[in-house]
């Protein structure tokens, strides 16, 4: 049966809050305490590299590579942040990254949703081939395509323009999101929509008022995925955006990884720059988290 | 070889939803010579682009180039784009053949230059050679920019590398700066302990390691009748590689697989006063600013003081086999005009500014070795500048073979030096790598 | 959800099956589904169509830097493929990549499922702590993540060696993790698993939240132990998610490229640590053998299609059932 539950619902993290908590759950059992401790330890281990990034971003170069690790930024300062923000690049790159990433997310959601509707709500010739193609297209190694991608964009006069990269990113992300969304769409019985139409809604209205809200978790999941892919992508951007003026944040980060005649790589700056790049992602996570409260997964989707 | 007249057969014309994959040439890539010039022979005003690699060229120099260019070429503008070193070959490979998006002038690593020169990526600069400095230009750099006797790229700036050492440690052991290569080996081996490298060098660090080959009059590759052969198995080369192996094994605690390590940290006392990890390192001249005692700069940041205490930190050039200086591998880069440039005359005007006395002097004042040897005095006259000039004067480059960039791209020298550092039989390893490298050298 | 319908009789869950049994209503408008596919297909054709076409053509030519700079390429048929298949290093890379991919995909999904179950089993606060940690890890830029791991395992100033020495394992003083292929891939796997687990854990957790508590409680009342409940109810319900996530993880882990490259920059035995992506990159942009790189790309595509075919088929069958 098709109704694979949502492949990913990172956004629905909070959505689980309102689940009924019976008396069985309230009893504190030793096993539970142990598990909670394990969860916290795992969390600490997992977050440690993130902590190390932030910690290093606060340390001066002279202390970064000393043999005794500096576990706390005791001599820390915001110098590295001041230095990376001082160069002109950051805000221009931030703007470019936002434009490219948000357009990619928007296009991906629309294109993938339409395709997911087609393959999970209709039987038609070529459906299966399409589903398989969506999977296999992800198996193309990207490392061999740069030259062709460059020529294509150059001939179309799309080099250094957000639209060029956006098209490439959208194409790279759509196949997976189609797979992701078809599970969600299939999980919503068409009967709900049909019932709405019986009640006098048009087909479009029924879709927008009934199905669409139920799809929200799936769309958020797909959106998060598209956002992360576009936000962190580097190699396509390198080829498609050769000019300084149009660089995205990962390209901007690259410029700090460069030893030069005048100095070695300043790793404190690299980490400060990385932290700055991670911040918008965290903000984005928080935003979609907020949208997700209210138990959207309840009702029809829930088995 | 025959220089190709730019028939960039690009396929796919435009992005249309139908994605017509019709083959069509991307139109007339205007041959560089027919540039539209106005009646009096001055080039039409236009915007030209200069690619600089990495942040090495300081902002003041960039500003000087833009303002001078725009002053001397009224109506024209200069845009400077920075490319990053690790990505430069990728960007040059895609953009240089593309008439519409090529930079007009570009910096290129000196070891990358022969590869691009031989495929016709650059415009012939032979007519300008004398005017831009002629024989005063660094000969080894000029050579890697040549193909079939013509100049396609010229030196932009040079760097050099020399030895930084802990004078206090050397003195305490009763040692002085060495005068021959074997003295150097003996000294650093003597200074080696489990916690201190006498001479810290990573096994894969071939850009430092090939100095030992050069010092023994060895060659990495030679050209005969237009065909390049890798000559690692040459007796002198073997001798150099074996000496290097001996120094690595006897004096360095750094892993055989390591490269591009921040060696300068090894020379410093730890932040909590721990003993340094090495008595000697080999590094480019700018490493000075990462070495020294901990101090606080104007911004209140903890930094190294740049070797202020000269009884503690000092430098010397790597000595030759029979005294004097050993030839080291020179850092630095070349510069050339793209063959596809639509404004070659403006590009040539830009080169005239770059090779002018004023700009060359500015390079020197910023610690970059000026391409024109008449102006090296601008580097200053302290011991750092002097050692840089002296070592650069005897420096060498990697072979000017068309396939050299491919050898680097395949990381073959990293692997060669690692194998030697791991203690393998040098003769066998050399033969093995000769076999791998020779076929690659001749492919442009 | 198929499991749900056998355990709980929820009418909604059965509905889609009934719909499929009577599809004629949909057949009236056969054009609509195609129209819905147009944007997705178009954007993929535009972005991927030409590069794939270019790769196929280039793989049949002699195409190096000279050709990129305008020299007319010569057609050489399948020479590039023949040349590569004769090269033992390609096969070594293929085997290495497959092993790396399977081990990492397995580990990632295993750990991801374990963490999802853990989140499901603990109270609100520890769950939130773990979720936030996973989200933060997920948000970290790849370059920064790999760089941090590189530092943690640095032979000289790495925290890992420092800790090992601190607990008395002196042989780790200055131990170089990246110097040997085995330990290199240990570090690489740690990075890859660390980066991919959040996606798996959060996906599977989301699926777990859809397992109805009532059903579990009913099963518990009927005497099913925790183990039986896991195998009998929970696992069948989240199985579709796990199989999709596993498939995607396999695809992605086969494409690992930048992580390896950044780790190699610190000094590693390069030819013994290259994976397929690195091999293609080295061949193409490194050695300027664009024809060879194209041939390997095509080969990798065919190979992955071939290898994943049985799995994809079973996945689709499940889908149609």
UniProtKB/TrEMBL annotation, chain A:
Pfam families attached to this UniProt entry: BPD_transp_1
Intracellular or extracellular location(s): Cell membrane
Domain ABC transmembrane type-1 per the UniProt entry, residue ranges: 94-288
Domain of life: Bacteria
InterPro entries: BP-dep_ABC_trans_perm, MetI-like, MetI-like_sf
Protein topology in the membrane: Multi-pass membrane protein
Keywords per UniProt: Cell membrane, Membrane, Transmembrane, Transmembrane helix, Transport
A Gene Ontology BP annotation from the UniProt entry: transmembrane transport
Membrane spanning stretches: 33-54, 96-118, 130-150, 162-185, 206-228, 270-288
Main subcellular location of this protein, as a coarse class: membrane
The keyword Ion transport belongs to this UniProt entry's keyword annotation: no
Annotated spans, Disordered: 1-24
Gene Ontology cellular component terms for the protein in this record: plasma membrane
Family: Belongs to the binding-protein-dependent transport system permease family.
Name the UniProt record assigns to this protein: Carbohydrate ABC transporter permease
From TrEMBL, chain C:
Keyword Transmembrane: yes
Membrane topology: Multi-pass membrane protein
GO biological process, one term: transmembrane transport
This protein's GO CC annotations: plasma membrane
SUPFAM superfamilies with a match to the protein in the record: MetI-like
Transmembrane region(s): 34-53, 90-116, 128-149, 155-172, 184-210, 230-252, 290-312
Predominant location category: membrane
Official protein name in the record: Sugar ABC transporter permease
Native species: Cellulosimicrobium arenosum
């Amino acid at each position: 049966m098709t109704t694979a539950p949502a492949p990913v619902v990172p956004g629905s993290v909070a959505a689980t809050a309102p689940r009924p908590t019976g008396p069985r759950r309230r009893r504190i059992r030793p096993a539970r305490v142990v598990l909670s401790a394990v969860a916290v330890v795992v969390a600490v281990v997992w977050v440690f590299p993130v902590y190390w990034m932030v910690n290093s971003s606060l340390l001066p170069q002279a202390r970064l590579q000393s043999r005794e690790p500096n576990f706390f930024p005791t001599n820390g300062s915001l110098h590295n942040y001041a230095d990376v923000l001082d160069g002109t690049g950051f805000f221009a790159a931030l703007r470019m990254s936002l434009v490219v990433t948000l357009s990619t997310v928007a296009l991906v959601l629309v294109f993938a949703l339409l395709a997911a509707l087609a393959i999970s709500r209709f039987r038609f010739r070529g459906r299966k081939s399409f589903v398989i193609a969506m999977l296999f297209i992800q198996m193309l190694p990207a490392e061999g395509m740069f030259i062709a991608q460059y020529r294509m964009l150059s001939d179309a006069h799309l080099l250094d323009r957000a639209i060029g990269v956006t098209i490439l990113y959208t194409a790279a992300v759509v196949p997976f999101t189609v797979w992701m969304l078809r599970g969600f769409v299939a999980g919503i019985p068409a009967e709900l929509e049909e019932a709405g139409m019986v009640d006098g809604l048009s087909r479009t209205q029924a879709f927008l008022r009934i199905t669409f809200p139920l799809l929200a978790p799936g769309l958020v999941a797909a959106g998060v995925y598209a956002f992360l892919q576009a936000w962190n992508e580097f190699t396509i951007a390198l080829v498609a955006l050769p000019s300084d003026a149009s660089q995205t944040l990962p390209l901007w980060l690259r410029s700090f990884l460069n030893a030069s005649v005048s100095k070695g790589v300043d790793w404190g700056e690299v980490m400060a720059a990385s932290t700055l790049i991670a911040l918008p992602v965290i903000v984005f996570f928080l935003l979609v988290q907020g949208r997700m409260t209210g138990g959207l997964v309840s009702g029809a989707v829930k088995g | 070889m025959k220089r190709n007249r730019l028939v960039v057969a690009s396929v796919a014309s435009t992005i249309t939803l139908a994605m017509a994959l019709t083959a069509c040439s991307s139109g007339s890539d205007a041959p560089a010579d027919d540039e539209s010039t106005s009646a009096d022979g001055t080039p039409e005003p236009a915007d030209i682009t200069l690619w600089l690699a990495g942040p090495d060229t300081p902002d003041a120099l960039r500003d000087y180039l833009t303002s001078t260019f725009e002053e001397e070429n009224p109506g024209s503008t200069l845009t400077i784009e920075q490319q990053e070193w690790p990505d430069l070959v990728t960007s040059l490979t895609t953009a240089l053949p593309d008439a519409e998006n090529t930079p007009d002038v570009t910096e290129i690593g000196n070891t990358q230059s022969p590869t691009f020169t031989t495929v016709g990526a650059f415009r012939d600069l032979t007519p300008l050679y004398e005017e831009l400095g002629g024989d005063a230009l660094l000969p080894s750099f000029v050579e890697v920019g040549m193909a079939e006797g013509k100049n396609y790229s010229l030196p932009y700036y040079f760097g050099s590398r020399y030895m930084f050492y802990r004078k206090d440690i050397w003195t305490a052991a009763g040692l002085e700066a060495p005068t021959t290569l074997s003295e150097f080996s003996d000294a650093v081996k003597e200074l080696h302990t489990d916690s201190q490298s006498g001479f810290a060098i990573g096994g894969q660090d071939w850009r430092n390691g090939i100095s030992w080959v050069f010092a023994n009059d060895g060659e990495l590759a030679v050209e005969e009748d237009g065909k390049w052969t890798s000559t690692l198995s040459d007796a002198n080369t073997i001798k150099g590689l074996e000496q290097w192996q001996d120094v690595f094994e006897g004096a360095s605690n750094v892993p055989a697989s390591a490269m591009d390590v921040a060696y300068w940290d090894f020379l410093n006392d730890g932040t909590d006063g721990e003993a340094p990890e090495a008595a000697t390192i080999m590094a480019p001249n700018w490493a000075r600013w990462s070495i020294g005692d901990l101090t606080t700069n104007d911004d209140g940041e903890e930094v190294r003081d740049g070797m202020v205490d000269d009884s503690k930190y000092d430098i010397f050039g790597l000595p030759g086999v029979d005294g004097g200086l050993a030839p080291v591998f020179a850092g630095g880069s070349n510069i050339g005009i793209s063959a596809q440039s639509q404004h070659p005359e403006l590009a040539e005007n830009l080169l005239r500014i770059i090779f002018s006395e004023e700009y060359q002097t500015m390079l020197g004042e910023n610690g970059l070795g000026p391409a024109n040897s008449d102006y090296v005095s601008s580097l200053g006259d302290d011991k750092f500048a002097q050692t840089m000039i002296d070592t650069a004067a005897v420096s060498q480059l990697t072979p000017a073979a068309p396939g050299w960039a491919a050898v680097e791209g395949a990381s073959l020298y990293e692997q060669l030096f690692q194998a030697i550092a791991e203690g393998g039989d040098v003769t066998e390893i050399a033969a093995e790598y000769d076999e791998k490298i020779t076929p690659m050298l001749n492919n442009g | 959800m198929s499991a749900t319908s056998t355990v709980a009789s929820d009418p909604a869950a059965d509905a889609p099956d009934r719909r499929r049994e009577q599809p004629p209503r949909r057949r009236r408008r056969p054009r609509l589904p195609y129209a819905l596919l147009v944007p997705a297909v178009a954007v993929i054709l535009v972005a991927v169509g030409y590069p794939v076409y270019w790769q196929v053509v280039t793989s049949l030519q002699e195409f190096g830097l000279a050709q990129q700079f305008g020299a007319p390429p010569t057609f050489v048929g399948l020479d590039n493929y023949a040349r590569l298949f004769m090269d033992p290093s390609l096969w070594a890379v293929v085997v290495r990549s497959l092993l790396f991919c399977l081990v990492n995909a397995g580990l990632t999904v295993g750990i991801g499922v374990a963490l999802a179950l853990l989140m499901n089993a603990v109270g609100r606060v520890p769950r939130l702590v773990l979720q936030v940690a996973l989200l933060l890890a997920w948000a970290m830029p790849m370059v920064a993540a790999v760089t941090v791991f590189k530092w943690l395992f640095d032979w000289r100033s790495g925290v890992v060696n420092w800790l090992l020495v601190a607990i008395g394992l002196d042989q780790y003083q200055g131990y170089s993790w990246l110097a040997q292929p085995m330990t290199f891939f240990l570090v690489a796997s740690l990075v890859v698993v660390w980066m991919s687990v959040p996606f798996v854990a959060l996906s599977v957790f989301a699926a777990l939240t859809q397992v109805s508590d009532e059903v579990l409680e009913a099963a518990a009342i009927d005497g099913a132990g925790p183990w039986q409940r896991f195998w009998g109810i929970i696992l069948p319900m989240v199985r579709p998610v796990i199989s999709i996530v596993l498939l995607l993880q396999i695809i992605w882990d086969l494409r690992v490229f930048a992580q390896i490259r950044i780790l190699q920059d610190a000094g590693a035995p390069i030819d013994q640590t290259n994976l397929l992506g690195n091999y293609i990159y080295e061949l193409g942009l490194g050695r300027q053998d664009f024809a060879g790189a194209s041939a390997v790309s095509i080969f990798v595509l065919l190979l992955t299609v071939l290898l994943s075919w049985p799995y994809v088929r079973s996945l689709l069958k499940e889908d149609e059932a």
